[in-house]
Amino acid sequence: MTDLGLPVPPGFTITTEVCRHAIAHGEVPDGLWDEVDQAIDRLESATGRSFGSGPVPMLLSVRSGAKFSMPGMMDSILNLGINDEVVQTLAEWSEDPHFAWDAYRRFVQMYGNVVLGIDDHRFQEVLTNLRAKRGVADDSELTTDDLERATRMFQKIVEEARPGELPTDARAQLRGAVEAVISSWGNQRAIEYRRISGIPDDLGTAANVQMMVFGDLGNDSGTGVCFTRDPATGRKVSYGDYLPRAQGEDVVAGIRNTIGLDDLADLHPECHSQLIATMDRLENHYRDMMDIEFTIEKDILYILQARIGKRTAEAAVRLAVTMAGEGLIDRKTAVTRVEPASLEQLHRPSIGPSAPKPALSGVAASPGAAAGKVVFDADTAVELAKAGEEVILVRPETTPDDIHGMAAAAGILTSQGGKTSHAAVVARGMGKPAVTGAASLIVDVSTGVASAGDIDISGGDLITIDGTTGNVYVEPVELIEPESLPELEQILEWADAIRTMGVRANADTPADAALARERGAAGIGLARTEHMFMGERLEVVRSIILSNDGPRRQEALEQLEQLQVSDFEGLLEAMDGLPVVVRLLDPPLHEFLPSRLELEQETVRRVRAGRGTDDLREMSEQVARWEEDNPMLGLRGVRLGLMLDQLYRMQARAAVSAYKRRLADGGNPVLEIMIPLVAAVEELRRMRLVIEEEIDRASENDDISIPVGTMIELPRAALTAGHIAAVADFFSFGTNDLTQMTYGLSRDDAEGLFLRDYLEQGILESDPFQTLDVGGVGRLVKLACEEGREANPDLTLGLCGEHGGDPATIAYVRKLGLDYVSCSPPRVEGARLAAAQAELST
Amino acid sequence: MTDLGLPVPPGFTITTEVCRHAIAHGEVPDGLWDEVDQAIDRLESATGRSFGSGPVPMLLSVRSGAKFSMPGMMDSILNLGINDEVVQTLAEWSEDPHFAWDAYRRFVQMYGNVVLGIDDHRFQEVLTNLRAKRGVADDSELTTDDLERATRMFQKIVEEARPGELPTDARAQLRGAVEAVISSWGNQRAIEYRRISGIPDDLGTAANVQMMVFGDLGNDSGTGVCFTRDPATGRKVSYGDYLPRAQGEDVVAGIRNTIGLDDLADLHPECHSQLIATMDRLENHYRDMMDIEFTIEKDILYILQARIGKRTAEAAVRLAVTMAGEGLIDRKTAVTRVEPASLEQLHRPSIGPSAPKPALSGVAASPGAAAGKVVFDADTAVELAKAGEEVILVRPETTPDDIHGMAAAAGILTSQGGKTSHAAVVARGMGKPAVTGAASLIVDVSTGVASAGDIDISGGDLITIDGTTGNVYVEPVELIEPESLPELEQILEWADAIRTMGVRANADTPADAALARERGAAGIGLARTEHMFMGERLEVVRSIILSNDGPRRQEALEQLEQLQVSDFEGLLEAMDGLPVVVRLLDPPLHEFLPSRLELEQETVRRVRAGRGTDDLREMSEQVARWEEDNPMLGLRGVRLGLMLDQLYRMQARAAVSAYKRRLADGGNPVLEIMIPLVAAVEELRRMRLVIEEEIDRASENDDISIPVGTMIELPRAALTAGHIAAVADFFSFGTNDLTQMTYGLSRDDAEGLFLRDYLEQGILESDPFQTLDVGGVGRLVKLACEEGREANPDLTLGLCGEHGGDPATIAYVRKLGLDYVSCSPPRVEGARLAAAQAELST
Fold first, then answer.
1. Which residues of B fall within a CB distance of 8 Å from A399?
2. Which of A110, A240, A300, B272 has the smallest count of CB within 10 Å of its CB?
3. CA B715, CA A301: separation in Å to the nearest integer?
């Protein structure tokens, strides 16, 4: 900013070279302090002030300045250059003894704490006692005498703890502060932070020495914050706050009412026009919306800080497009200016500004707000929704049995689970607001009451949840519906022109498919068929699994086949002309059966009620046949397909029948069949023969070509991809399961028991179920891409699962040359944008 | 053999070149048949017989001869060169019309079936009817007329199915047979077999044309089998069977009584001495014990086949050592002559020759035989064993709860599971005989009766199991105790001198450790601590897990610590001077808790009996906290260690205390601590700090150095081995779990539901839990070895788990440069031998 000619408080920088020398030799380079003295001399003559004396005393600050921001290091020591004499001079010059003594006590406190390592608690105790004695809440309300007394007591604390180490000489104070900042590079927290963040240890930190300026030096001083555009909407309007006679913190704290920039023009016309010019200058220089802190000291404007301004998703999109229109940035830059994950919220209602205080809170699992009547079970949710009610499904946690209820609900609230729980993942997939893990809530489904402290929530009560913040209101709250944003269409159009990687959606229903298409998905990358086996069809599915009676099983299979034909027809119709990848049944069969534990619990109830239990015992015995200790690692996917091939045959037949119906209706269906959980090429080879047999039979001499591929979701599939690729038309990386197997970690189990602790404690740097673990799982994906393509140059490569909507993952797989990613419909727009950003960053 | 000058029936070979030409061009090369005609002319003049005419007719055989034995291909067509005229000539020459017509009907049957593809069933039907009419059991008892009638009916069958395709001309018969053999290279079964066995498709097969000789041509003919040494003991004694006037099959079928070689000397003195010379010649040529088939046709000896003889484990060891002593082979060759896996049975009792017919059979899960009283639960097993009884533990299947009972039992019998079930794996580890998966047996533990058909077995009944064959006898059977075999010590000494890779044992008790040491283990590579948490201690362990009361948990921990000190002391004492790797607790906590399903079942019983259930409900709620859907992928190993660090701290303290006690007793303990289930380097880094803190504290200023390492048992650990190695002193590949995660397949679940089917159907070529899957899991091991060693050149590399005793795995990891393998004590000798063989094969 100094180079731009802006009014920055003057100062100088001690470079990182000094720090590196100090690390290497245990001391600062010879001649450093002479150079510092010369720099201070130059500062004094430039400003007409004196460091450590009158008539106009200059105080200095020292701040560390590393290449990367490092919260683990100390960052600043203020008010250097004050002592018993200077405080008097300062009081005289400023005509404000209160200000002078406040500066002095701050110096002693900060030097004592930051440089000499004395616990800040000891200083705070003194201030607390003084405030109590005076009956005030804020330090600024203490009298000058109080501040002088505090200063003296602080000096005593320091003298006792570190005798003789609090310098009174200004230059000695500066040396102490500079050395402390430089050596903080080597403190434990900083080292740890660098290790975790991958910052090299040999960079070193600089120390910035700068003149202090004061916004509380009488009525012709003040301090403020302004934005070059409106950070809420991105529109080009005046946007700022100014507070006369105040320090920076006061503006943010909101203790006193601020004035706008237009009013500043009246108070300080010259400063105002200088500020407006500076704002233009900075925005033109950084070519982005700027957030600027400034101080006016005795009618002179100083710019303290300027940074790229934070913004809402709406503002980000509008800024990017309008700035590109103004020629400030090009389209490519515009595309990089929007956070892909933020796009989702542009389509969701939000909590209005008049919202009350929330009653409880949980994990912000899926963004957006929803209000409705509480229901405690999926069936009631469906029933009420059919009757036109908005409902919020409240559960301890959700399971695949609740899917139809989740689909019917406006929002989901659970007391257990976190960002990666079943409820969270499914809600994000459906684009529905969800708050999970509201831990203070006890949901008793059997009695139909959820309680948290003295709050009781019954079925039918109106509540509001905010999945963007995790807040829960036990009352209806005004929701703001999203407006359509033409700039969004514009920036996505630019992104589409840039990106080379395709974006498909994971969708299991025609409604999801339609939404995905609306958001720009180029097909369905993953149509899970297991959801189609739930709900009303569960009884049919059970009779297929449990029936020992051939004809009855056959009948049930035929019944299910008719339903599946409609399922697939709906998907193919919604995605007409675009590919639809149907994945054959994946989960273990007992997911469709009642749990033995629940059957026994029901037995206990019946015995107590004196009723018969023979049917339960029989069911339990049948279910026991399918029981597995680790179903995730058991009989599922292609294994099930090979052992009980009627199921997969039925699904293949149904898919081809749907395809033919679409053709007959003049549609343009594009169908692909995907076989899950392949670990060995022989599984795919055999299953493919079975599927192709069904395709040939069902196609009845029509020449139908339907690509058959596989999920790569087991480490061994990735490790033997070269073999598997020889019998696959496409790979789709099922990174959810691949992550589970590679880590040996079940997401559902780990979430509740230790995954959150792992993330909080930094044992894992990020949730591997959100962002692909490049170092482990990513190596498998890379290897499979390389060896798969080598074995079969025509192999199509895709990725489905949660990671498909994650920008970091998209950037990684773009480098690997994937043809497409597939994600939930609400994340499609973000994925389009992220794919463009990935393209630009390579 | 012809080159050795042995009396082989004369013939010639059509080389593989002809086959390759036929594959490439769809027909045999020009001039082939001319060459064949010339070869037959030479045969005729050499033998004085005529092909297709008198006076002495020559019949020929055609056999395929591929580089690798391929059961998927046809192998022989016999008696070529016969027709209505020749059969008469043959009858006259042999003076045996029965023989002549039998040869004719065999030719028609074989040509019809093998060359023309007519179902053999149709021919068998004719013979069956003839036998029934004549009231005899064997075709040889049919009259000459019967045989003539059969021949005519066979000709009719062929003529109907393939009109005009049964040649009467001898040379046309030969051409048909040769073409059929050559084209069988391309049949579906052969292609499939080659694919599975990795045999190249372009090798092709040869066709061997050879003169037929007949052992049933009157009393001066006969056929026999001999071994150059005794295949049961390996001792150098005369060993053979001869049957006058017989064909090869008759010797094997055992219909008539054979005579020994000494008696042959009386019958055919010249042939006998020629045979003895041939045996010496062959043994000297092949430098191994030979199994020889011979035929005497009209007092002329022919050697039909000679192959390396199959032998018992005892014979193999004795042969190898004595042949090395004779200078026939060198020591290295001797070491390669013994199958490592066979050594186990040298230490186990076996079923005597007088055994009755077994009552039922199951899977031969762990070799050796055992007899004892039936018990149905582990506690009774322990009780009776303490009272000095031999017991057989009979269960539907075993679980970790049964370990103490399995340890006390002489043998284990289960109705479920297979070669890789819990019972099988643990029994092999303990070196105890086991029969698993005796599927016809229904074990009702609650009533204490096991039944199979009309057999009922009650507790206390005497039964005998043979884990070498899978047979079960419901009576006591005479067992033969193994004798000590000095040659075994000798060959293992030679193996030890050759091998470079160490062999340790997996042992959890001092008794196991002592056995391992006796078998030559150089330490314990894996001491699992979870078994130490079972049995009588289970209550203490439960109170640690379930107690919400700090002091009570602390007390239980201290109690367990004292017990663990003794556990570790016993191991260190048994292995004094050799390393003991203690693995900290690995399984999920709820393995130590009662199952919720069983608690509910008990609730049902109590409610029915009108008793209270509050304690059960309470227990169920506590247990629910630890419940996981996929415990294998849940809170276990280092994850548990980090979340509940008191447990790991306690184990580390106990290990160091035991170490110090051993030092104080003048011992030489070598302790290593292993942290399981590491997926991310940060887990190991933190846990290592915790462990080292405890080591430092427990060592009380003594300078104790205890290496700390980790299992590599998750794919991610292997993929990030370069990072993990930086904080590990050693890796031990936990290939059981690594295989489970890489395949996404739980061994226990898969075994019952599909793994056996997969192996039977050839979807998996071998059981990846027995032999390391080189193409998948092996790649991870390789990568981890390379990147681990690169990051930390001092890293020790070992492998523990089932694969540690598998010769193929040992050969693979030897190439990767592993320092040692660790296997169950009974497999240690085999592993020593396999390591030497691996060394010799590189």
1. none
2. A300
3. 61
Give B361: exposed, middle or buried? Use CB within 10 Å, 0-12, 13-18, 19+: middle
Catalytic, A121? Answer no
Q: Is residue A75 left, alpha or beta, with left meaning phi > 0 and alpha meaning psi from -120 to 50? A: alpha
Of B597, B719, B723, the CB nearest to A597: B597
For CA atoms B556, B558, B559, B560, the dihedral sign is: positive
Q: What is the pTM of this model?
A: 0.82
| B119: three-class secondary structure by DSSP | coil
Using CB atoms within 10 Å of the CB of residue A237, give its burial: 0 to 12 exposed, 13 to 18 middle, 19+ buried. exposed
| B743 near A CB under 8 A | yes
Q: List the one residue out of A111, A102, A53, A54 whose CA is nearest residue A80.
A: A111
B390-443 per-position pLDDT tens digit: 999 999 988 877 888 998 999 999 998 777 677 887 887 777 899 998 888 999
Taking residue B786's Cβ as centre, other Cβ atoms within 10 Å add up to: 14
Which segments of chain B have a pLDDT < 70?
69, 71-74, 196, 248-256, 420, 752
Phi, psi of A317 (to 5 degrees): -65, -45
User: Could you say which residues of chain A have pLDDT below 70?
Assistant: 69, 71-74, 196, 248-256, 420, 752
ipTM: 0.82
| A820-823 vs A502-506, strand pairing mode | parallel
Residue A277 touches chain B, beta carbons under 8 Å? no
Nearest CB among A600, A630, A746 relative to B601 is that of A600
Quote the tokens at residue A687.
């299953």
d(CA B689, CA A759): 19
In terms of CA atoms, which chain B residue is nearest residue A722? B775
pLDDT at position B428: 78
Query: Distance between CA B566 and CA B661 in Å, rounded?
Result: 10
Catalytic residue among A422, A590, A723, A803: A422
Which tokens belong to A589? 């069969």
Instruction: Return the C-alpha torsion angle A402, A406, A407, A410, nearest 10.
Output: 160
**Tokens 């700068």 belong to residue:** A210
Shortest CA distance to A690 belongs to which of A733, A740, A641?
A641
Whether residue B55 is preceded by a cis peptide bond, meaning omega within 30 degrees of 0, is yes
CA B664/CA A829 separation, integer angstroms: 70
- Chain B hits for A782, CB-CB cut-off 8 Å, are none
The 8-class DSSP code of residue B302 comes to: E
Residue A68 contacts residue A197 (beta carbons within 8 Å): yes
Closest to A682 (Cα-Cα) out of B197, B772, B758: B758
Query: In the annotation, is B800 catalytic?
Result: yes
pLDDT at B498: 98
CA–CA gap between residue A304 and residue A310 (Å, rounded) = 18
Are B596 and A597 an interchain contact pair (Cβ–Cβ within 8 Å)? Answer: yes
Task: Give yes or no for a cis peptide into A55 (omega within 30° of 0).
Answer: yes
- What b/e sequence results for B204-213 when a residue is b if at least 16 CB atoms lie within 10 Å of its CB, and e otherwise? bbbbbbbbbb
Which residue from B minimizes the CA distance to A784? B776
CA-wise closest residue to A504 among A489, A519, A488: A519
Neighbouring-strand partners of residue B524? B505, B580
pLDDT for position B251: 67
Distance from CA of B436 to the nearest CA of A (A): 19
- Chain A: residue nearest B682 by CA? A763
Residue the block writes with tokens 């239990």: A613
- Secondary structure element (H or E) that encloses residue A37, with its range: helix A32-47
Whole-number Å distance between alpha carbons of B542 and B535? 12
Tokens representing B173 are 């018969």
d(CA B822, CA B802): 9
Which residues fall within 8 angstroms of residue A359, CB to CB, at 6 or more apart?
A452, A455, A472, A473, A474, A475
Whole-angstrom Cα distance, residue A508 to residue A822? Answer: 13
Q: Which helix (H) or strand (E) holds B710?
A: strand B708-712
